[in-house]
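Milestone 3.1: sequence recovery, worked example.
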């Protein structure tokens, strides 16, 4: 995918005339490549959850809005999106937790390199645990616990901030 000579991304960019963007992604912009792959990998999961939330909305509410004269934009903005707010909050929180604990995508694509440019906290803890000369497990374990507490606190704050409005029931 990211091969600078014959990869699909390079071929698409060059066919669009964007030769300056056809670079060696895993060396020149490893963080952008990791973000792109991680987003693509988790996009389907988020869409399935949003589709489940959308299918849980009763058809009668949409029909009632249509009978009242609402067009597609008004049905979406005044009926569907407010009722999907809780689902959006859950998807956002799950995505946040997944992004903060990203390990496998970074480890497989770049291993945290080159020069630690795409390293995350999870890959740093792994490197500190297994690739340093001594097998000192106390420091990486403490870092993992602290990182868990940081993610938990951020998740709680995010949940409180996003759920401040009144709950809509149908």
């Amino acid at each position: 995918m990211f091969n600078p000579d014959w990869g699909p991304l390079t071929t698409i960019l060059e066919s669009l005339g964007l030769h300056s963007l056809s670079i060696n992604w895993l060396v020149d912009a490893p963080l952008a490549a990791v973000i792109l792959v991680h987003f693509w990998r988790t996009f389907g999961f988020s869409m399935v959850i949003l589709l489940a939330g959308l299918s849980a909305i009763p058809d009668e509410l949409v029909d009632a809005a249509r009978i009242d004269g609402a067009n597609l934009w008004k049905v979406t903005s005044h009926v569907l999106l407010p009722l999907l707010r809780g689902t959006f909050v859950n998807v956002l929180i799950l995505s946040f937790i997944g992004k903060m604990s990203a390990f496998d995508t970074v480890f497989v694509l770049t291993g945290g390199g080159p020069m630690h440019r795409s390293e995350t906290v999870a890959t740093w803890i792994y490197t500190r645990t297994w690739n340093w000369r001594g097998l000192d497990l106390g420091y990486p374990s403490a870092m993992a616990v602290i990182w868990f507490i940081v993610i938990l606190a951020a998740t709680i704050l995010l949940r409180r901030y996003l759920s401040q409005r009144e709950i809509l029931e149908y």
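The chain has one domain: 30-162. The chain has a mean pLDDT of 88.
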